[in-house]
């Protein structure tokens, strides 16, 4: 009887184990599908982000075109010319001119700093920013001028060393996410002589607290300059800041003195070092390298001449510009200027800096254009090995790309990407990370994620939210190219049936939108197919349209304005030199004509005039361009994204 009881127990135990294994396998598959959906969503976010950056880089051609074709701008507004190209009459920004007339009122309740700064100042600043207090403009400008003076004494590459009892912490992009910086300090300690840091660029833009991050980093730098390194990223650039939020943040927080702060920041950004070298073995750059990257040349580039890496200050005359275009078949970035060539960087020097700020590693061998971003290059493992061997280095650490886990190792362990802004695209979209490098030790990785109420939700809810927003912005990109997409669809639809094959649809989407995405996998979210798998291509637009501010205006006009809304906003922000947000009707018309000519956008001027007049509601002869832009918004009629039958998995 005892034996029978034992046999029954063994059978029950075996069934329990089999059931547990079935449940475990199901759960693993379930999590794998959720993770796959999350990866696809991140791919959408990243592809659209890079496409926007490509558009930003292309703006440099527009500004060159502007000055070549509207030479009167140089006579009418030399300050504008200087702002765009770093040329023309220029007087060094005087500390007294900027700060001398600023007084701190007794009513100011924010943090008060004592100069010279001390560790107490850093703690005071951090505690105030935790309470969302605003630092007075007087202190901001004082810190900026102090930082600029110290940066001017520094080489292009900062050399720093480890020792047996001192590790160096390396942080990647922060992008205005103050919570991530504070979490790093909470976990890893504040900067000090015994706790050195390297911050690898992209401190600003996208997040809401870029100026706070800058103040903390600059105060830390002034206190511990030998043990706190700040590298320039591709977002430490005033033209990038106009598109991605930092300019708007500064003007919003410092309405009276915002313009002065931005002017000084342009200089400060231009003096930031290009990279850091640890123990003569580890090179830290924001972006990457190319097959032509020359560290010897980069050590001697006059980096401060590059106010914006998007606006290469290369002086050319009209004749040489014409010859170059005729011979090479493309637009040479440059403008007709007077001045000594010694005042400007050469085209080769500019390309070197672009490469180290914008490039990305890839698994494919060789070096080829970074077509997604539009600047820098993709470099393969062979390029990395050759570069490291030539310069007697062992490792390249870079940032510049959001990674799901906060870091990524590639090129046989010779390239590490570190990204420190968690929840970069959406809550729960990615973890942040930092690296600790010790004396003759392997780099150690530390991951984290700023946790809010939304992050505590189950994984499937977080993935659904991320996926929903990714599909939403992808559909907005599709609707901005609706006319072009329909034209291509109809060319492929030879029978006029309203349907094309899945392959034809995917090919059209990739070529028109310029986004390298897994279109077949995403198709269930975007279109309707019949039983044979053919695509009803007009279903792309069933649940979405762009709201028309003026009914009479053609849909193609609305699409074009919506597509280029970010470019238009930057152009008008540049022209709006007093940052009032108001543009005269004359400025609006002239700039629109220039814009449409350069981009070959054929829109009836009368239609654009009608739009502008509608925006000028008080008939004072000027328009609020932000309101003009807001008039073009996308309406999602209904949202299928969260439903289980339309998931990406």
TrEMBL record:
Names of required cofactors: Mn(2+); Mg(2+)
UniProt cross-references to CDD domains, sorted A to Z: EFh (cd00051), IQCD (cd23767), MPP_RdgC (cd07420)
One GO term of the biological process aspect: detection of stimulus involved in sensory perception
PROSITE patterns assigned to the protein according to its UniProt record, in alphabetical order: EF_HAND_1, EF_HAND_2, IQ, SER_THR_PHOSPHATASE
UniProt-listed Pfam families: EF-hand_7 (PF13499), Metallophos (PF00149), PPP5 (PF08321)
Entry's EC annotation: 3.1.3.16
Source domain of life: Eukaryota
Ranges for domain EF-hand: 480-515, 563-598, 603-638
SUPFAM superfamilies per the UniProt record, alphabetical: EF-hand, Metallo-dependent phosphatases
InterPro entries: Calcineurin-like_PHP, EF-hand-dom_pair, EF_Hand_1_Ca_BS, EF_hand_dom, IQ_motif_EF-hand-BS, Metallo-depent_PP-like, PPP_dom, PPP_phosphatase
Family: Belongs to the PPP phosphatase family.
Full protein name: Serine/threonine-protein phosphatase with EF-hands
Source organism phylogeny: Eukaryota, Metazoa, Chordata, Craniata, Vertebrata
